[in-house]
Design a protein that fits this description.
It contains five helices and eight strands, in the order H-E-E-E-E-H-E-H-E-H-E-E-H. It has about 190 residues and is of the alpha+beta class. The protein folds into two domains: about 35 residues; about 140 residues, Glutaredoxin (3-Layer(aba) Sandwich), CATH 3.40.30.10. The protein has an eight-stranded mixed sheet with strand order 1-8-7-4-5-6-2-3, sandwiched between helices. Helix 3 links the parallel strand 5 and strand 6. The N and C termini lie far apart (about 70 Å).
């Protein structure tokens, strides 16, 4: 074989080899891109029950239904302004909202026996609460909601704070009695966000 022909053959073989390697890599990259990422869907615990819908008033007097939050992960907290353990949780709830609202988290505080909305609003402003607070429309609707949640879960709400995690489809997936720190709530919320 002539030296010119030999150079061309080597050059052609080398070019084909390099291009083949590059295409293999590009094909592998294309396969990686086309494989859908597995979405981790939380498994709803056995015995999870549908969260009872309710209508209460926000602090401006607007009626708010739990159904308005369908498609969101809701941390539903029964609390009172007068309750020391409830107050300890507020900074953790504020942090959770700051960090995870964009991921679909909503926190709703059902405010029990805490006076008129203007008193609750002053308390909220002083604490820097950044989540929805609900109260009675006229008289004692919050007590009815408390009773309904106790009935739905098979255990009356006898103390506050009592908090529920409600998944995006409206099922109660976790209940807490007593205060919890942010990291505990987040650990249990994470699979649903």
């Amino acid at each position: 074989m002539k030296p010119d022909m030999m150079k061309k053959t080597i050059l052609f073989t080398l070019t084909a080899f390099i291009m083949g390697c590059g295409q293999g890599s590009a094909q592998a990259d294309a396969r990686k891109k086309s494989i859908p990422k597995k979405t981790v869907k939380a498994t709803r615990p056995k015995g999870a029950v549908k969260a009872p819908d309710f209508t209460l008033a926000d602090l401006k007097g607007n009626r708010v239904q739990l159904a308005d939050y369908r498609g969101k992960v809701v941390l539903l907290n029964f609390w009172g302004t007068w309750c020391g353990p409830c107050r300890r949780e507020i900074p953790d709830f504020i942090e959770l909202m700051d960090k995870y609202q964009e991921s679909g988290l909503e926190i709703i505080g059902v405010t029990l026996t805490s006076g008129p909305p203007e008193n609750i609003q002053r308390f909220s402003d002083r604490m820097g609460i950044n989540y929805t607070l609900l109260t009675d429309i006229e008289v004692r609707e919050t007590q009815t909601v408390t009773w309904e949640y106790g009935k739905a879960t098979g255990r009356p709400i006898n103390g506050i704070p009592t908090t529920f995690i409600i998944d995006r489809e409206g099922y109660i997936v976790k209940k807490y009695t007593g205060p919890r720190p942010e990291h505990i709530f987040y650990k249990d919320l994470k699979p649903y966000l």
